[in-house]
Amino acid sequence: MKTIIGESRRFLDIDLSTLSSSVFSPDEACLRDYLGGKALGLKLFYDRRKEGLAALDPLGPGNILAFMMGSFIGTGAPCSARFAGVTKSPLTGLMVGSSCGGPFGMACKTAGWDGILVHGRAEKPVLVRIDENGAGFEDASGLWGLGTDETQRRIVDNPRQGALVIGQGGENGVLYAGIRSGSRFLGRGGMGAVMGAKNLKAIIATGRSFSIEPADPAAFAKWNAIARKHINRNPFILSYRAYGTNYGVNPGVKAGYAPVHNFRDRTDERCKALSGEAMAERYHTTHAACAPCTILCGHKGTYPDGKVRHIPEYETIGLWGGNIMNFNPDLVAEWNDIMNDLGLDTISCGATVSWAMEAAEKGLRPSKLAFGKTDNIASILHDIAHRVGEGVELSLGSRRLAQRYGGLDFAAQVKGLEMAAYDPRAGWGQGLNYAVANRGGCHLNAYPIALEAIFRYIPPYSRMGKASWVAFFEDLFDAINATQTCQFTGFGYLLEPLVAKHTPRFLLKLAMTYLPDVAQLVLDWGALSGLVGAITGRRTTRRGFLLVGRRSHVLERHMNVIMGVKSADDTLPARFLTEAETKHPDRSVVPIVPMVKAYYRKKGYDSDGAPTARLLSRLGITTGKTTRDKERS
Ligand code: SF4
């Protein structure tokens, strides 16, 4: 087997219109500034499409789908099997990045490719095969119309391979269709619809031609051991290992972030039947994680009908459980399997369905859907993916439907992307996070609900420090997304090094609340920057690592501003700004305006939410420089 030291620096550019490909390498400055993963995907997209970005049709041949490997993948660093997808979203009309832990990443990286850009449109359905020699093209007409399960079964025939596939949702242009790899998804923003519009049914990579070795093996061994130690002793991470992401259900019921009745309520004891703890007992769960993974948050279990199923993630449980007034976890798992096979984003689909239920109740739009009615959900999911009957409209997402029928105030979306299963009235920082996140109603942008309502380090019903924490975690998570290690490692890296671990909790809480900038100095992500240096040979400091994330985040915001985003878009649906009364004992609405203003100041944006020329220049974004890719063939 041949060896790659850290990065191959080889990228494939695939033109589906001509069924041809070429090889390029970004220059050293670009790799240093953007590293890999989502950050580098945004940069490559920007360099190629910044002219005409606003008018670029997400479902047209000009849109680019970038599949970007992270710099940690293949090295054995913790939770490093991940890769990113980046494109212009047909759901929001803005940039969208997504992270996936399926087998495609390892196969692609060990085939020798650090990333793939796909553009153009094939005349008929096509399957792209990738190996160390490049890309080949095959007729995929026989696969068109199949679900993601059967498609993967037909095309993956040995363990060296990893596939990316779409189901009927992507083929038929459902605006929130995802892309599947193994049992994992590039779920958000409609990437599957972009793939379908290109007539691209699947990409399959055959890897294990190369082993990936760090540039500095001794430094890697040191930082890898430290990282594992920190990850393996973090209590939050250990809860995820034991119960999966559904560990979050019981704290959500207590703190009032678990959505109920299309976010009309934010607590209901019946949701506890869908908690990680309850499901571990009911289904005798075992691990079913991305590979390799140190945390092991993924689980599977045996259901009453005898089938072994993946346990749905917290988001799916939240939006298909209490939010549609269903408290039967068996049903959520059945629907989760159906959505995964059809290739639908369970978050956007769930929030669109719950919007339709409330709209019908209020007489705004007739529907077969109703809260608590579960017997027609499976057939509606098929209608959505095939775009027939009521599914034609439901395939458009909640914002478009609310613009057509009314009911924007209770459409749980921001900038067109449906919100995940965290009610922002339970943590005002989470509200700010949703309002300003680049891809819309995204919980993973900064995830402050963890500090507010899960760890309870900072007061949830307060504006204090929220702008600082959102800005900090945006930078950190986008830096992590440049390595494509799993974001769930973040709290292990931050909170377990000596200083943070041994600072008395009350002191840390005080500092986090009143002096967030000082508290951020106590947190230590040195193992992450150490791993970057050891793997790539490009030494960096903690600050330098954070700067990669900041540059990526600001570039994405800049691209979104070019596509029309303004401060008026940085807000929440009226429900979260005006409806304080719920069944949760605490009354709360989110004071979004002053928090957004404070956030703009923190980020260096102007009053309309645009990065200033000075900020762009400081980060090397305004110079008009384009990546000097070196053509190899
Ligand atoms: S922690 Fe969960 S999501 Fe993250 S890499 Fe592991 S299994 Fe995948």
Q: How does this structure look, described?
A:
The chain is α+β, with helices and mostly antiparallel strands and 633 residues long. The protein has three domains: 212 residues, Aldehyde ferredoxin oxidoreductase, N-terminal domain (Aldehyde Ferredoxin Oxidoreductase,  A, domain 1, 4-Layer Sandwich), CATH 3.60.9.10; 169 residues, Orthogonal Bundle (Aldehyde Ferredoxin Oxidoreductase Protein, subunit A, domain 2), CATH 1.10.569.10; 195 residues, Orthogonal Bundle (Aldehyde Ferredoxin Oxidoreductase Protein, subunit A, domain 3), CATH 1.10.599. It is built from 28 helices and 20 strands. A seven-stranded mixed sheet has the order 6-5-4-7-2-3-20, with helices on both faces. Strand 5 and strand 6 form a beta hairpin. Helix 19 packs across helix 25. The longest helix has 21 residues. It is globular. The two termini are 23 Å apart. Bound molecules: iron/sulfur cluster (SF4). Iron/sulfur cluster binds next to loops.
CATH topology of the largest domain: Aldehyde Ferredoxin Oxidoreductase,  A, domain 1
Shape: globular
Question: What number of structural domains do the residues give?
Answer: 3
Distance between the termini: 23 Å
Helix-strand makeup class: alpha+beta
Mean pLDDT: 96
**CATH domain class name of the largest domain:** Alpha Beta
CATH homologous superfamily title of the largest domain: Aldehyde ferredoxin oxidoreductase, N-terminal domain
The small molecules bound here are:
iron/sulfur cluster
Order of adjacent strands in the largest pleated sheet: 6-5-4-7-2-3-20
Number of helices: 28
Rg is: 23 Å
